[in-house]
Design a protein that fits this description.
Helices cover about 55% and strands about 20% of the residues. The protein is α+β, with helices and mostly antiparallel strands. The protein has a three-stranded mixed β-sheet.
């Protein structure tokens, strides 16, 4: 598949899923979720959706909660985007923000 088309679809998924989570979801947990990025398979059948939350839960619990909402989100996603086949969604907690904060703490402690 064309990498440019794949990147456009990934960007569209982030935008639309963020919109669904913010505006259309009724679950209070989903209101505290931020979609950070997406990665689709070459055949567009699967998509890994990376997210963070404002809650201090275990990441595996957050992933489980998001995976339970995946079919609902996928249904709304299929109505909002024009793509032949809506990919199956797999939600993965994004550790990059915590990793960056940890590195900043280490750098600050080295400066002292």
């Amino acid at each position: 598949m064309n990498k440019i088309k794949q990147k456009k679809i990934e960007s569209m998924l982030v935008k639309e899923i963020s919109n669904i989570v913010i505006n259309e979801a009724t679950d209070s947990f989903l209101k505290g979720v931020t979609i950070t990025s997406a990665s689709v398979s070459n055949d567009l059948s699967y998509a890994k959706i990376y997210f963070t939350t404002i809650y201090d839960n275990e990441h595996s619990k957050d992933e489980k909660e998001m995976d339970e909402a995946a079919s609902y989100i996928r249904k709304l996603l299929s109505e909002s985007i024009e793509i032949r086949h809506t990919p199956k969604l797999k939600f993965i907690y994004d550790n990059s923000i915590e990793y960056g904060q940890n590195i900043e703490k280490i750098i600050e402690s080295l400066k002292k």
